[in-house]
Amino acid sequence: MDAAAAIIAEGRCVALTGAGISVASGIPDFRSSGGLWERFDPMEYATSLAWRTDPDKVWELFRATGTLFHASRPNDAHLAIAQMEKEGWIQAIVTQNIDGLHQAAGSRNVIEFHGNSVDIYCESCGRTFDREESIGFLSSTGAVRCSECGGNVRPSVVLFGEPIPPSALNESVRLAAGCRSMLVVGTSAVVAPASLLPLEASAHGAAIIEVNPERTELSRRATVVLRGEAERVLFKLLDLLRGRMV
Known about the structure:
- The protein is an alpha/beta fold.
- It contains eleven helices and nine strands.
- It has helices at 2-9, 36-39, 42-45, 48-53, 55-70, 76-86, 101-105, 131-137, 166-178, 196-203, 230-243, and strands at residues 13-17, 90-95, 110-112, 115-122, 128-129, 153-157, 181-185, 207-211, 224-226.
- The strands form two sheets. It has a six-stranded parallel β-sheet, with helices on both faces.
- β4 (115-122) and β5 form a beta hairpin.
- α9 runs parallel beside α10 (196-203).
- The protein is elongated and about 55 Å long.
């Protein structure tokens, strides 16, 4: 923990977060036991092909995730990272999550690598829908159609087979290449291209700090490995960083 705090205190730290950071908020890792992929085969419900051929089915998944996310609140891990950003220890957060909990915790510079479930829009005319309208979609059935043009309405999430939004990809790569350290929290580091960001950072000389209760593919490459639940580890890390200012 002391080594990790010393590295982050040097400045230009970027956080990369995955599903593990939101588990304490009641959102199970999609791939873990009890996760959504046990109920919804991702190759059947979460691909660009499924969206084109059967949007009614894909909306079953959208409603399941949307209901889960709307009921969730930031946990101590989200709050700790938001405070680290506010106090200048972290310059940006790149998240693979689509739950919006970093912003809800107060983080400002958040790059949503896989989009989000909060911003709902019409693919045809570009109309956007506010939170109240979006919540209303969760209690309807079938695919949602735009009342103005009849086009398909969807959340701004990246389905399998769809490209990462260029702005998110370019900014994430820029941050990875320019950071002095990367704090990698709650991700298995196996899903490309997000899994390549720590490698990009390392190739440019950055230290990698991994926070995860389990060993991952990244563990053997990390400079420092912190084993434990993110909500506990990150608040302890924040305390150590504040202690360095005394």
